[in-house]
From TrEMBL:
NCBIfam families: LptC_YrbK. GO terms for molecular function: lipopolysaccharide transmembrane transporter activity. Coiled coil: none annotated. Pfam families: LptC. GO terms for cellular component: plasma membrane. It comes from Flavobacterium supellecticarium. InterPro entries: LipoPS_assembly_LptC-rel, LptC. This is LPS export ABC transporter periplasmic protein LptC.
Length: 184
C-alpha cells in the first residue's frame, strides 16, 4: 500500500509543478501586456525654449509649453500638444514668425504638421492663416488642402489649397479668389 501511495503522491506533485510552471508563464506574459504602453514618450519637457544656431548665429527660436519626444518608436516623431511659437531669422537678421495650437514633426520624413490657428507672418508683412499647414524641411516648401487666407500690403487671397516656398516667392493656389494690386 505504501508503494501505491508514493507513486500517486509523486505523480500528483509532478502534475502540480508542471501546471504551476506553465500557468506562471502565461500570467507573466499577460502582466507584461497589461503594463506595456504602446505610445509612451521617451522624454517630456515643459516650458521649452530651443535655440537653433548655425556658425554662431541664431537661425530659429522655438517656444512651447510642452514637448513630447517619441524618438523611441519605429516611426519617430516629436509632438507639441500645446502649440508652438517659432521665430525665424534670415541671413540679414529679419524675423518671421510661425505659430500654431498643435505641432508634430516626423523625423524620418522631415515633415512638420502644424494644426489649429496656424499663422505665418513674414518679416516684410505677409501673413498666411489656415487651420492646418505642412512644411517639408528638405524642400523648404509649405502646403495645405485646407482653407487659407493670405494678405500683404498689396494683395488679398483666400481659398482652398495652397503651396508655397518658405519666402513666399513662389505660390500655387488651387481654388482661390482675391485681389492682387502689385506683384513683387
Amino acid at each position: 500500500m505504501k508503494v501505491h501511495f508514493g507513486k500517486y503522491f509523486l505523480t500528483l506533485v509532478t502534475v502540480l509543478a508542471v501546471t504551476v510552471f506553465f500557468s506562471c508563464e502565461s500570467n507573466f506574459k499577460d502582466v507584461q501586456r497589461i503594463n506595456a504602453v504602446p505610445f509612451s514618450p521617451i522624454g517630456e519637457a515643459e516650458h521649452v525654449n530651443l535655440k537653433y544656431t548655425d556658425s554662431g548665429r541664431i537661425k530659429a527660436i522655438l517656444v512651447s509649453p510642452l514637448l513630447l519626444d517619441f524618438s523611441n518608436l519605429k516611426y519617430p516623431y516629436t509632438e507639441f500638444p500645446k502649440g508652438v511659437f517659432v521665430t525665424l531669422f534670415d541671413e540679414r537678421g529679419n524675423k518671421s514668425y510661425v505659430e500654431s495650437d498643435y505641432a508634430i514633426t516626423y523625423a524620418k520624413t522631415d515633415i512638420i504638421d502644424l494644426q489649429g490657428h496656424v499663422k505665418i507672418t513674414s518679416s516684410d508683412g505677409k501673413v498666411l492663416q489656415t487651420e492646418q499647414l505642412y512644411y517639408d524641411q528638405k524642400n523648404e516648401w509649405f502646403f495645405t488642402e485646407k482653407y487659407f487666407k493670405f494678405t500683404d500690403a498689396n494683395s488679398y487671397l483666400e481659398g482652398k489649397g495652397i503651396d508655397f516656398s518658405k519666402d513666399f516667392s513662389v505660390m500655387n493656389a488651387q481654388q482661390n479668389r482675391g485681389e492682387i494690386s502689385k506683384i513683387e
